[in-house]
Design goal:
Layout: H1 2-22, E1 25-31, H2 41-59, E2 64-70, H3 75-88, E3 93-95, H4 100-113, E4 117-119, E5 140-142, H5 147-160, E6 165-171, H6 174-189, E7 195-202, H7 210-219, E8 223-226, H8 236-242, E9 249-252, H9 259-265, H10 267-270, E10 274-277, H11 284-297, H12 307-324, H13 329-336, E11 362-370, E12 381-390, H14 396-404
Helix pairs in contact: 2-12, 3-4, 5-6, 12-13
């Protein structure tokens, strides 16, 4: 009976593997190559292509097939193109939108099309809050932690660093608001340890921050948190330094992430900057990823922001489909809540909570310091990991219930430190 049972299991696994091998897993990239997110979208595409190529080479056959559409950072454009691809190419899984404007489309269409979706960036919670509410859904898988937690990590970091006057410069959209809400929540629930002395939201198409820089200079800040401001985001630190307005602590959000972002800013603008990050620059997984990236894209290249998230996510998707042994989307969604994988990131991808977010993901802070690294000898800065934080093991619905009861930080609002 044992032999018979083993034979049945073996035949079943072989059949599942055959079914997967007969037809590649079709992955559709919904990438923002143009529009307000054009400065970060292409890196997602390169990361996905790298992972798919490696996996297919290791398999010895086309296990995954990948194509990308330009989401244009436009909900209507993405919606139309996604519908066309679902009807014609029939992807098994899709994802890669960068900003909350286009991520909303994935949240709405994933359940409708019964199409699993993936996002390699962090989860923004305010898009789920009225007005403009979209449903929490298991059909969209997120790497990492919510922006609500990102804001809290920023507040904790400023507190630990002894900052007394703190500012926020964020994009004038969901992501900027949610990061600010997290910062405010930390401030409220930890005894108001510093004054929030300046709150600024900027249009996403802005590149000249002279007005914002002057406001920061007048506020005389010890620290400023910059989650994401849009097109000119990488240059903001340089503009602050040029005007003599740079606080002692400048903390960028996770989209800056690594030396790839620092290279866009340049050595002068990036030196001394802190950023929330998704990797340990000294880990074997990260080092192997960077070397693979440079082998594919040039020895003087470096992974773009969030690239490691998408690279790891594709390997996780491979693990999910192999574990499920089927392309049935309902089974895939259930398997996503059971399977984890880790290589280039500081935290595993998966298992997911019932609403698609990553359980208890880790967060880090790196600083760009003078001196080139072995991985980027052509650039005069290297990364130093200065903090690793654990986020609470809360599911997305738990976080949403907290966020619903909070208001965002308002420009000109009064947020004094405790006396």
């Amino acid at each position: 009976m044992k032999r018979l049972l083993m034979l049945v299991v073996a035949v079943g696994l072989a059949a599942a593997w055959t079914a997967l091998a007969e037809e590649p897993i079709r992955i559709l990239g919904t990438i923002d190559f143009s529009g307000d997110a054009a400065n970060i979208g292409p890196g997602y595409d390169r990361a996905i292509r790298l992972a798919v190529a490696e996996i297919n080479a290791a398999k010895g056959f086309t296990f995954m097939e990948y194509k990308a559409i330009d989401a244009e950072t436009s909900p209507s454009a993405l919606d139309a193109k996604l519908r066309r691809e679902v009807l014609t190419w029939r992807p098994h899984i899709a994802g890669g939108a960068a900003l909350e404007t286009t991520i909303r489309i994935l949240c709405l269409r994933g359940p409708e099309y019964k199409l699993p979706m993936f996002i390699g960036g962090h989860l923004s919670m305010t898009k789920y809050v009225p007005p403009g509410e979209v449903p929490l859904t298991p059909w969209v898988a997120y790497y990492g932690y919510s922006d609500f937690f990102a804001g809290q990590l920023a507040g904790r970091f400023f507190h630990e660093m002894g900052a007394k006057r703190v500012g926020l410069i964020g994009g004038d959209y969901d992501w900027g608001y949610s990061n600010g809400i997290g910062l405010k929540y930390y401030w409220e629930t930890n005894g108001r340890p510093f004054e929030i002395a300046s709150v600024i939201y900027t249009p996403l198409d802005k590149t000249d921050y002279s007005t914002e820089v002057q406001l920061v200079k007048e506020a005389n800040l010890d620290a400023v948190f910059i989650p994401y401001t849009g097109a000119g985001w990488f240059t903001l630190a340089t503009q602050l330094k040029d005007a003599g307005a740079a606080p002692e602590i400048i903390l960028y959000g996770t989209t800056y992430s690594n030396i790839g972002g620092a290279m866009v800013t340049g050595e002068y603008g990036a030196e001394g900057i802190y950023t929330l990050c998704d990797h340990d620059p000294n880990s074997e997984g990260w080092i192997n990823f960077v070397r693979a990236w440079q082998a594919a894209y040039g020895e003087r290249s470096f992974p773009d922001a969030y690239a490691n998230n998408y690279y790891q996510m594709i390997y996780w998707i491979k693990e999910v489909y192999e574990t499920a042994g089927t392309k049935d989307p309902e089974v895939i969604i259930r398997t996503m809540q059971e399977v984890s994988f880790q290589n280039a990131c500081i935290s595993p991808m998966g298992p997911l909570c019932p609403f698609g977010s990553n359980w208890g993901a880790l967060g880090g802070v790196v600083k760009f310091e003078a001196g080139a690294s072995e991985l980027a000898p052509f650039f005069g800065l290297h990364e130093v990991l200065v903090r690793t934080y654990e986020t609470p093991k809360m599911n997305a619905q738990d976080v949403l219930e907290i966020v619903k009861g909070l208001t965002r930080l308002e420009p000109g609002g009064s947020y004094p430190a405790a006396e």
